[in-house]
Structure formats: structure tokens, C-alpha cells
Amino acid sequence: MPDLPSGRRRFLQHTSVAGAGLLIPELVFATSQRESSNKEKGAENISPAEDLMREHGVLNRVLLIYDHHLHLLATKQTFDGSVLASAADVIRHFVEDYHEKLEEDFLFPRFRKAGKLINLVDTLLAQHKAGRMLTAQIRELSSVATLKYVSDTDKLADALRAFLRMYRPHEAREDTVLFPAFRSIVSPHEYDALGEDFEKKEDELFGEEGFFKVVDQVADLERKVGIYDLSQFTPK
Ligand SMILES: [Fe+2]
Ligand SMILES: [Fe+2]
């Protein structure tokens, strides 16, 4: 391992066991200087809601990668499954094992204790579980070399479609109902303290400025499949 800042080394160690497709260290080293260099110092003092919502932004960018692969499958185009496998790894390690764990450990129990939005919390939790099963399928099928079998192709398309269908309303409901209500069930002091706890946890798992590293990683996956350039989405 080259002489890297401790935070970066910790991040690479974590991700090296996280799955072959998750991260290519040289790539991260190069890209982290590209997009993350714009980040201002001190910009990490963010509230729990902003923290969770920008994580939804990462989720949304992976959903675009899933959309793209669904289109490739529908039009019977061949593709290298490694980008999809890496995208599923981002979902597994960043969204499921980190973001959703924050919701499950810090938000859901407080709503239950306050007796608020309990049905919503139950549904969100059930969807996290369903999402994990779909991710396992997507991960497994995307690593099957070139999907020779029609049944595998159909299974992968079904899993991607089910994931997209569930997560768009899931995160929209959290952004517009759960997160805004969270402020009203905790004291301002607890709310601020949780923001710090979230950042600490993010640093522990992904290294300093870990969020930006994950964003860079997703941007690299977008580049590989040709959907990085934002202007392509502007109507002509
Ligand atoms: Fe959630
Ligand atoms: Fe969420």
C-alpha cells in the first residue's frame, strides 16, 4: 500500500474485502482528486436529514445505472456485467449496510418510541429486507458471464425492475414524510448530535470524506456505460 493518509488507507482496506467490483484503488485515487477537490473544508457539518438525502442522491445515480442496464437487456444488447456488479456492490455496502442501517438504528426506533408513523416505518423496514434479497440476486446474476441463458436475463431484468419500482417511492416517502417529521420527535440538541454521529460512522466505514469517494466511484461507473455527461439528458 503506498503512503496514504490514514483515512484513505482505512477506506481502501475496508473496500478491498467488500467485493471485487466495488472499487479500484488507482481509480479512486485519481478521481477523488477530480470531483472531491471542489469540496470546501468544514462543509461536513450537515444535519441528519441532509446527510440521508444526499445518500439518496447516490442511490438515485445507481438507479440510473440500473435503468441503463434494463434498457440494454430489453434491447438484447450484450454488456460487461462488471459495471452492474460494482453498482450492486455500492448498493450493498453504502446504501444497505450503511444508509439503511442508520435509518434502522437511529430513526425507526425513535419513531416507534414516539408512536408516530409506525405503519410507514414498518413498510420501510420490510422494503429494506426485500431490497437486500433483490440486491443479492442482481449481484449474483450480473457476475454470471455474459448471461448466456434467456432465463437468467429475464430474472436479472425482473430483479432490476422490482428494485427500481420499490426504491423510487421508498426514498421519495422518506425525503418528504419521514425525514421532515424526524426533527419534530427529537430535541434540537439530539438532532445536532445525531448529525455528528452519522458523520463519524461514515468516516469509520469509508474513510475521511467517504461520501465523496463513493460519489466519485459511482461517477466512474457512469462514465464506463456512457451516462456521466449530464447534458445528454437535456431535451434537444
Ligand atoms: Fe429506507
Ligand atoms: Fe433511505
Helix content, binned percent: over 70%
- The secondary-structure element order is HHHHHHHH
Distance between the termini: 47 Å
Q: What does the average pLDDT come to?
A: 83
Query: What composes the largest sheet?
Result: none
Q: What is the 3D form?
A: globular
Q: Into which percentage range does the β-strand content fall?
A: under 5%
User: Can you tell me the residue ranges where pLDDT is under 50 for at least 5 consecutive residues?
Assistant: 1-43
Bound ligand species: fe (ii) ion
Q: Can you tell me about this structure?
A:
There is one protein chain. By secondary structure, this protein is mainly alpha-helical. It has one domain. The protein has eight helices and no strands. It is globular. The protein starts with 5 loop residues before the first helix and ends in an 11-residue tail after the last helix. Bound molecules: fe (ii) ion (FE2) (2 copies). The site of one fe (ii) ion has 6 residues, from helix 3, helix 4 and helix 6.
Task: Give me some keywords for this one.
single chain, 236 residues, mainly alpha, 0% strand, disordered N terminus
What is the topology?
Blueprint lengths: L5 H11 L8 H8 L15 H27 L6 H34 L3 H25 L7 H36 L2 H19 L3 H16 L11
Helix pairs in contact: 1-7, 2-8, 3-4, 3-6, 3-8, 4-5, 4-8, 5-6, 7-8
The structure holds fe (ii) ion (2 copies).
